[in-house]
Design goal:
Layout lengths: L19 E12 L3 E12 L2 H21 L7 E15 L2 E17 L5 H10 L4 E8 L3 H27 L9 E5 L28 E12 L2
Antiparallel strand pairs: 1-7, 2-4, 2-5, 3-4, 6-7
Protein name: SIMPL domain-containing protein
InterPro entries: 26kDa_periplasmic_antigen, SIMPL/DUF541
Pfam family, one: SIMPL
Length: 223
């Protein structure tokens, strides 16, 4: 009689587990920033919205003209916010309309970082009444990120090697797995009033250093 079920074969099952050391590596690179970005703008308030808009536009134009005179190009200036808000006061528990506020914010890229203070002062002297922050960056961030990643891999291997030596085992030089892990974004460098710009007429700005950090996880086999 024909057997419709194939003969079963005994397939050996191995429960051999790889000897693995799992570590994470961290690499840091300190970088001197060479560019800066500052957000500045103008806030105006009038009873009529068109008056607030017109006054705001006149001051913004004056600010941009002032920046142009110190070498800031048009392509270095970008509008990042334009808002119109009705304003109210509370009098005897009642809401009383006060007028309209128009706010126009610009992001200014500063290629010569030593001019950061001069840019801020020029904007303020021409009517800017909002300076919301300044951030320092590097124009070659990607190269420094690669350096930090390389240092993270080296750090991971060194940790695994230390563990293997402590255990008295032989560590395989080639990793079983290396993966970059997520990192927290670099925080903006805060606005600091420390002497960098030597001119007595410029707001002193200290860019400090940027710290670029990369992380990896790695697994190495040992015997």
């Amino acid at each position: 009689m024909y057997n419709q079920y194939p003969a079963q074969r005994n397939i050996p099952v191995t429960n051999k587990r790889l000897n693995v050391i799992s570590v994470y590596g961290e690499g840091k690179v300190s970088v001197l920033p060479d560019t800066a970005e500052v957000t500045l703008g103008v806030s105006t308030e009038e009873m009529e919205v068109t008056d607030a808009q017109n006054n705001n536009a006149m001051v913004i134009t004056k600010v941009k003209e002032g920046l142009s005179k110190i070498g800031v190009q048009e392509e270095q200036i970008q509008t990042v916010d334009y808002s119109i808000f009705p304003q109210y006061d509370f009098v005897d528990g009642k809401q009383v309309f006060r007028g309209y506020k128009v706010q126009h914010l610009l992001r200014v890229s500063i290629k010569n970082i030593e001019n950061s203070g001069l840019v801020i002062d020029t904007a303020v002297n021409n009517g800017a009444n909002i300076i919301s922050g300044i951030q320092f960056t590097s124009s070659d961030t990607e190269r420094f990120q690669h350096q930090a990643l390389s240092l993270a891999v080296i750090n991971a291997y060194q940790k695994a090697d230390t563990i293997a030596r402590t255990l008295g085992v032989h560590l395989a030089k080639e990793p079983l797995l290396v993966a970059e892990t997520s990192q927290q974004p670099n925080n903006p460098v805060p606005f600091q009033a420390s002497a960098l710009v030597k001119s007595s007429t410029s707001t002193p700005i200290e860019p400090g250093t940027l710290e670029i950090t990369k992380f990896v996880t790695a697994e190495f086999t040992f015997s």
